């Protein structure tokens, strides 16, 4: 009798053979959006290697180079491809470093939102009763305030309580906490709705009969079946978190001037746009709009893929 050796395909091979990757290869918009987003992520990671100058190194900045136009314009300097800002920093370098900060805040805030939303949503949906009512009323109260209102109030309280110097030193962490606190109810409500549908199924009842404790049932059995809508929300919320950070920085409640994000760069340049130094705001603005656009396009594609009723392939 001949022995047939069947080799189990690797996880990478399983991914390449999956319907998800099949639909991704067929959607040119999704492929282009992912390529652009990946380019931004790599540019942010390798900003110290790609940047012509270090915008954080005060010794390399000359105030005499301030407000120089891009290289191709009259009075442009070949050292500064996209020109300089009001402090003499290279715009291209500040964009690369600012992109890194914006992505860190966006991804960090979404991670915090995800943690809070999953724990609260699972607890509300699984236990039900008074726990469900109490947690959802908190979410309702949270949703009655706009994200920006919550972020402005909390950031103002942080600044008043700990001082501007402390806030500037831990600005990234503060913004992650502020934006994360403002947006968790969307995850909680989505997870709760999924849990209410899942907990009545046979595999949950079987786990309960086997004596598994509630945390194990919630996180190891129910949660994996709720990941599709959560993934879609995560994609969209990264874009929203980046925009929230940009808006807060524009209002002076975000990143400090010496640690520029895309939002703070736009804010700095807005003061000088009427004097003709449009490039200080324009180039960071283009990068920010492009980044948010490709993330939203990826989110729309994921939403369609995970909803077979509307996905056309």
UniProtKB/TrEMBL annotation:
Belongs to the binding-protein-dependent transport system permease family. InterPro entries: BP-dependent_transpt_permease, MetI-like, MetI-like_sf, OppC_N. The chain crosses the membrane at residues 29-50, 101-129, 141-160, 166-184, 226-252, 272-299. It is found in: Cell membrane. The keyword Transport applies. Its main location: membrane. The lineage of its organism: Bacteria, Pseudomonadati, Pseudomonadota, Gammaproteobacteria, Vibrionales. The keyword Membrane applies. It is a multi-pass membrane protein. Residues 99-299 form the ABC transmembrane type-1 domain. Keywords: Cell membrane, Membrane, Transmembrane, Transmembrane helix, Transport. This is ABC transporter permease. It holds the Pfam family OppC_N. PANTHER family: ABC TRANSPORTER PERMEASE PROTEIN, OLIGOPEPTIDE TRANSPORT SYSTEM PERMEASE PROTEIN APPC. It comes from Grimontia kaedaensis. PROSITE patterns: ABC_TM1.
């Amino acid at each position: 009798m001949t022995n047939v050796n069947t080799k189990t395909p690797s996880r990478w091979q399983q991914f390449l053979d999956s319907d998800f990757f099949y639909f991704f290869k067929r959607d040119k918009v999704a492929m282009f959006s992912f390529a652009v987003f990946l380019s931004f992520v790599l540019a942010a990671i390798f900003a110290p290697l790609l940047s012509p100058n270090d915008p954080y190194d005060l010794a390399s900045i000359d105030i005499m180079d301030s407000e120089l136009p891009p290289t191709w314009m009259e009075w442009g300097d070949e050292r500064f491809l996209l020109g300089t800002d009001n402090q003499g920093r290279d715009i291209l370098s500040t964009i690369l470093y600012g992109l890194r900060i914006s992505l860190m805040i966006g991804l960090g805030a979404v991670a915090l939102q995800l943690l809070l939303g999953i724990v609260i949503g699972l607890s509300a949906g699984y236990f039900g009763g008074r726990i469900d009512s109490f947690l959802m009323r908190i979410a309702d109260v949270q949703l009655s305030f706009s994200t920006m209102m919550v972020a402005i109030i909390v950031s103002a309280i942080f600044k008043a309580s700990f001082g501007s110097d402390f806030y500037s030193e831990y600005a990234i962490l503060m913004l992650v906490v502020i934006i994360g606190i403002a947006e968790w109810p969307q995850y909680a409500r989505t997870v709760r709705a999924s849990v209410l549908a899942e907990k009545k199924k046979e595999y949950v009842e079987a786990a309960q009969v086997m004596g598994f404790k509630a945390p194990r049932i919630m996180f190891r059995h129910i949660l994996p079946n709720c990941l599709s809508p959560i993934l879609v929300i995560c994609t969209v919320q990264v874009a929203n978190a980046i925009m929230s950070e940009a808006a807060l920085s524009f209002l002076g409640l975000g990143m400090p001037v010496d640690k520029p994000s895309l939002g703070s760069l736009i804010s700095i340049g807005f003061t000088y746009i009427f004097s003709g130094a449009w490039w200080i705001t324009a180039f960071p603005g283009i990068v920010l709009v492009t980044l948010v656009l490709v993330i939203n396009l990826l989110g729309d594609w994921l939403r369609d893929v995970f909803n077979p009723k509307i996905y056309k392939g």
